[in-house]
């Protein structure tokens, strides 16, 4: 309906503004302060980044209730990956926040999202530009695996801090005889992360074929 389409347009616009601000801020800070800006990335734009990622949870609801026709599982995996890395790994460990890998992750995420939300906004209005369509469904194929590698690296460098500080590790009281050692949970999640990457990459290729097929491009041009 028109109301739902307008709601989705406003949602995409909000996300576009947030990610564009982050992306522009990162570039300006790097051009101004050089490498010194990399270690301060989280403290300068982390709040807006967290707001954008929390807002993205709505996309799961959009798919679930049927107003967005994207596939649920791939989008769910992509969103939860970011939530876990941003809020559980980075936000909880101040020592990790100053690492260069945070800047790399934010750059990859925002580059992908600026393109994606620009495409989505125009698509809500029935506007399809072939270069933008190609970029939206092609850029994610090389950049998503890079972002997964960056997520894995962020988890690896965070492990010593989780081990030394005991963050999220729980020792259950009597009569329970086991405890939850969070570094082991993160190591198991690494397996899930890379297994999910294979599934999502296959889905990205499927979406690219569906949207960039010759017949589809001709229909959108007409």
Q: Can you describe this structure?
A:
It comes from Calcarius ornatus. It is found in: Endoplasmic reticulum membrane; Membrane. It catalyses: a very-long-chain (3R)-3-hydroxyacyl-CoA = a very-long-chain (2E)-enoyl-CoA + H2O; (3R)-hydroxyhexadecanoyl-CoA = (2E)-hexadecenoyl-CoA + H2O. The chain crosses the membrane at residues 7-30, 42-65, 127-160, 180-201. The protein has one domain (2-220). Helix content is 81%, strand content 2%. The protein has helices at residues 2-33, 41-56, 58-65, 72-90, 94-97, 100-124, 130-165, 182-212, 214-221; strands at 170-171, 179-180. A hairpin with a 7-residue loop joins β1 (170-171) and β2. α1 runs antiparallel to α6 (100-124), α2 (41-56) packs antiparallel against α4 and α6 packs antiparallel against α7 (130-165).
């Amino acid at each position: 309906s028109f109301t739902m389409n307008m709601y989705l347009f406003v949602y995409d616009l909000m996300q576009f503004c947030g990610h564009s601000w982050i992306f522009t801020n990162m570039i300006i800070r790097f051009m101004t302060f050089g490498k010194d800006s990399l270690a301060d990335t989280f403290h300068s734009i982390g709040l807006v980044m967290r707001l954008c990622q929390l807002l993205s949870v709505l996309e799961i609801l959009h798919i679930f209730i049927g107003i967005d026709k994207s596939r649920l599982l791939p989008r769910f995996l992509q969103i939860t990956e970011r939530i876990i890395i941003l809020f559980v790994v980075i936000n909880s460990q101040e020592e990790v926040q100053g690492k260069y890998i945070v800047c790399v992750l934010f750059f990859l995420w925002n580059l992908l999202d600026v393109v994606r939300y620009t495409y989505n906004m125009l698509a809500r209005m029935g506007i399809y530009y072939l270069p933008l369509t190609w970029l939206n469904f092609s850029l994610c194929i090389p950049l998503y695996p890079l972002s997964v590698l960056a997520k894995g690296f962020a988890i690896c460098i965070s492990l010593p801090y989780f081990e030394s500080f005991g963050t999220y590790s729980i020792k259950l009281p009597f009569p329970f005889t086991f405890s939850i050692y969070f570094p082991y949970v993160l190591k198991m999640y690494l397996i899930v992360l890379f297994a999910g990457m294979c599934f999502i990459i296959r889905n990205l290729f499927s979406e690219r074929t569906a949207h960039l097929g010759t017949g589809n491009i001709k229909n959108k041009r007409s």
